[in-house]
Amino acid sequence: MAVDPEFLKLLVAPGTRQPLRELSAADLAALNARIAKGGVKNQGGAAVTKPISAALQPEGGRIAFPIQDGIPILLITEAIPLDADGGSAPRPS
Question: By CB neighbour count within 10 A (0-12 exposed, 13-18 middle, 19+ buried), where does 81 fall?
């Protein structure tokens, strides 16, 4: 699901205020493959069991904020690490 480019310009990552971009198809596919295998948790510690249809990623960040029913969920606790080691949410400087 594409996010309106004008709307996307208004959004920033929580905590860091980094600009956001849509998660690439390759990163989305890799994330969904990890979800299908099990063991993926969001930054809040909750298991992620359903595939993600779209997500936003902070520029240079290794986390994804899921988009659910067309609404970006921009909560640090809902961010999903893109790296298998769990990564971490960016912290404010």
Answer: buried
Q: Are strands 80-81 and 71-72 parallel, antiparallel or unpaired?
A: unpaired
Mean pLDDT of 54-78: 95
* Helix (DSSP H) and strand (DSSP E) numbers for the chain: 2, 5
- Location of structure tokens 């989305």: 28
Q: Where are the domains of the chain?
A: 23-65
Instruction: Provide the sign of the torsion angle of the four alpha carbons 23, 26, 28, 34, taken in this order.
Output: negative
Cα end-to-end span (Å), the chain: 31
Q: Mean pLDDT over all residues of the chain? A: 90
On the question of pLDDT at 48 being above 90, the answer is yes
